Amino acid sequence: MSLQPLRDDLPRFLEPYLPQPSGSQAAKPFVTLTYAQSLDSRISKGKGIRTTISHAETKTMTHYLRYHHDGILIGSGTVLADDPGLNCKYGSEEGYSHSPRPIVLDSRQQWRFEGSKMKDLYLKSQGQAPIVVVSEEPREREKDVAYLLCPYLSSSRVDWKTLLKKLHDEFDIKSIMVEGGATVINDLLLKPALVDALIITIGSRFLGSSGVEVSPIQSVELEAVAWWNGTADAVLCAKLSGSK
Ligand SMILES: NC(=O)C1=CN([C@@H]2O[C@H](COP(=O)(O)OP(=O)(O)OC[C@H]3O[C@@H](n4cnc5c(N)ncnc54)[C@H](O)[C@@H]3O)[C@@H](O)[C@H]2O)C=CC1
Ligand SMILES: Nc1nc(O)c(N)c(N[C@@H]2O[C@H](COP(=O)(O)O)[C@@H](O)[C@H]2O)n1
User: Fold this and answer.
1) Which residues form the Bacterial bifunctional deaminase-reductase C-terminal domain (predicted)?
2) Which domains does the chain have, with CATH numbers?
3) Ligand 2 atom closest to Cα of residue 84
4) E strand spans, the chain
C-alpha cells in the first residue's frame, strides 16, 4: 500500500531532532528512540498482537524518519510478534534505496529470516538484509544475514554501549532509529548518554490495561520539547534530560 504525502509542516518540525548530515566524526551512532503509543501509554493491544496506532499521516512520518537513518533496531519480542518489513517507502523516485538496515536483538536465536516479510522485501530489492545481534556464535547461519556477536549483561539485556560502538565501527552505521518494543524502549529511556532524540506519536485511542505498556522503572525528565498536532495524532519530539 502506498503512503499518503508527508504533511508539509513536518520536515521543519522534525529537523532539529534528526541525525546531522554525514561527515560527523561522532564515535557512536546518532540514536533516535521512536514509537507510537496510545493515550494510556500502550504500544500494542497485548503481547504478540500487532496493533496499528498511527494515523496514515504519522505512518508517513515514520517512513520519513526511516529515510533519514542508516539502521532500524527492534527487540526479539517485536520481530516475533509483528513480522515487520522495516523498509522505507518514502521518496518514491529513488525506490526503496533509503531503506535502513534492520538490526534485530535476538540473543536466544529465536527468529528466522527465512519466511519473514523482511526477506520477502529484501528479495524484491525493497529492503535490506538484517544484522542479527547474538550473544554466542550462531548455531545455524542463514544466507544474507550478518551476525553481530555482542556481550549481553544478562540472557536478555544487551550491553548498549558496546553494541552501538560495534554497529558504528563494524557496519558503518552512523544513525539508528529504535522502534521498540516496550522492553527495549523502557531500558533506553533511562540512557540519556546514548539516546539523542525521542520522537513519540500519540494516537487518539486507549488500548486498555492488557496492552503492552511503556513505563520506565524510574521517572524520566525531558527537555527541548516540541509538539506537532495532526488530524488524529500528536507527535512529541524531545531530548532526554542529561543527554549531550
Ligand atoms: N507501537 C509501536 O510503535 C511499536 C509497538 N511494538 C509492540 O511491542 C511489543 C513487543 O514488545 P516486547 O514484548 O517488550 O519486546 P521487545 O521488542 O522490546 O523485545 C524484547 C527482547 O529484546 C531483547 N533485548 C536485548 N537486549 C535488550 C535490552 N538491553 N533491553 C531490552 N531488551 C533487550 C531481549 O531478547 C528481550 O526479550 C509487540 O506487541 C509489538 O507489536 C513494537 C515496536 C513499536
Ligand atoms: N510508527 C508506528 N505506528 C504504529 O501504529 C505501529 N504499530 C508501529 N509499529 C512499528 O512498526 C513496525 C512495522 O513496520 P512495517 O510497517 O512492517 O515496516 C513494527 O514492528 C513496529 O516496530 N510504528
Assistant:
1) 29-235
2) 10-16+26-240 (3.40.430.10)
3) 17
4) 30-37, 42-44, 71-75, 101-105, 131-134, 146-149, 152-154, 157-158, 175-180, 197-202, 212-213, 222-229, 234-240
